[in-house]
Amino acid sequence: MNPLLQALWVARKDLAIEFRTKESLNAAGAFAVVILLLFSFVFDPASPEVATIGGGLLWLCFAFGGALIFNRGFARELPNECLDALLASPVSASSLLAGKAITSFVLLLIVEAVSLFVFGFFYDVRWWLHPLKLFAVCALATWGIAILGAAFGAMTVNLKLRELMLPVLIYPLLLPLLMAAIELTNNLLMNQVTSDSLLWGRVLLVFDIVYTSLAVALAETILVN
Amino acid sequence: MREKLVYILAIVGAVLLAWNLYGIFTVLPDEAAQGAIYRIIFIHVPAAITAFTGFFIALVLSAMYLKTGDLRYDSAAASVTEVSFVFACVNVATGSIWARIIWGIWWTWDPRLTSMFVCLLIYFGYLMLRKAIDEPTQRGRLSAALSIFGFVDVIIVWKSIQWWRTQHPSPVLSIRTGGGNIDPAMEHMIYRDLLAFLLIAAAIVLVRMRQEMIEREIDSLRRLAHA
């Protein structure tokens, strides 16, 4: 079977389980909204300055919420030795990893959509000025977070300190991507698309290509004992 | 044989470093704009190049471990990464001291400094990951993968002063600029210091590799006893 089709089947299975139980989605969504709420105590939410730091607030929420999703991605397969069964199946390791990344990507996009509405409502920020560009930024940055999250979720799945190790390992690697996503989102929220935006867009694209290639190439190493 | 090599590398490195320090403090004049503090460049730049060379060697060793499964490559990669991490810390610390004198601040969130700080965090994560895994082959596999993922940031650090407008000074070495940015005598001293640092780093890596191998032997004996 085509590897991409295999990945989509894995994602379909995971999304079916997730939409039935909603355990990661509820936790990540609630966590992102709580962080948005906490930020309202750090600065004046009515200040017009909110738009200039809005990108940072949003991407911190998405990144922290994402960690909850990645932690569950592979950990969900541990009971009843489902991970071993998946690895023994004809699905290749890279397709399995890509499938998990697609699942995280979809779930994180849902969390982002909810957070954007909450953010617009509570902080009076008009994030819908450039909807297509904002969607492109969210899609590119979320894929980067999802593919690294899936790779490191797989790496840490069998560790005793899984919940502690995943954020320690993943956030430093995500920093170039988060910097680019924050800059671009700030520009869009302030309605100031500059020539620097193109540079940051390229950073997102290159990040996605490099880490997707590395994750697919190392999938066998990461997953198969 | 290995022990002799360690002594030779350490002694030659230490003598060269002492000779260099004599030259740095007594022969080379103060820099026109910065005064005496510019001398920190003779530690800062060689420490950075030593660290990056080490991270690159660790990347190659990690790839070789994944290809062959030979745990000696894993031990070597871990040892090289540890030593490189220390040199990277020296680079950041000396840069920070220079910044306090010249800029008036210890730190600024400039792309070069930020990416270097991220580099430290990534390799600190590498060392933490190794401590968190008991089983040697799993430890080797996962830390090799992290070494490969993490090296992307080393490239970002290296190129950051070209990609972004940074507060950090531009490259000075003629191998990057084509010459004209630094006095040849000063540049020559940077290369001599780099050689001394590389020799000392190689000696420490050999000692650390020996410790890693002994640790693995003890671990396998313990497993045998438990079995």
The third-level CATH topology of chain B is Four Helix Bundle (Hemerythrin (Met), subunit A)
Helix content of chain B: over 70%
Mean pLDDT of chain B: 90
- Biggest sheet of chain B, in brief? none
Number of helices of chain B: 7
**What's the order of the H and E elements of chain B?**
HHHHHHH
First-to-last CA distance of chain B: 35 Å
Rg value of chain A: 18 Å
Number of strands of chain A: 0
List SSEs of chain A in N-to-C order.
HHHHHHHH
Largest sheet of chain A: none
Number of domains of chain B: 1
Q: Judging by the overall fold, what is the CATH architecture of chain B?
A: Up-down Bundle
Strand residue percentage of chain A: under 5%
C-alpha end-to-end distance of chain A: 23 Å
Strand content of chain B: under 5%
Output the CATH class name of chain B. Answer: Mainly Alpha
**How many H/I helical runs of chain A?**
8
Helix content of chain A: over 70%
* Poorly predicted segments of chain B: none
The total tally of domains of chain A equals 1
Protein described:
The complex is a heterodimer of chains A (225) and B (227). With 225 residues, chain A is an all-alpha fold. Chain A has one domain. Chain A is built from 8 helices and no strands. In chain A, helix 1 crosses helix 5 and helix 5 packs across helix 6. Chain A is globular and about 55 Å long. The two termini of chain A are 23 Å apart. With 227 residues, chain B is an all-alpha fold. Chain B has a single domain, classed as Four Helix Bundle (Hemerythrin (Met), subunit A) (Up-down Bundle). Chain B has 7 helices and no strands. The longest helix of chain B is centred in the C-terminal third of the chain and has 43 residues. Chain B is globular. The mean pLDDT of chain B is 90. Classes of the chains: A mainly alpha (225), B mainly alpha (227).
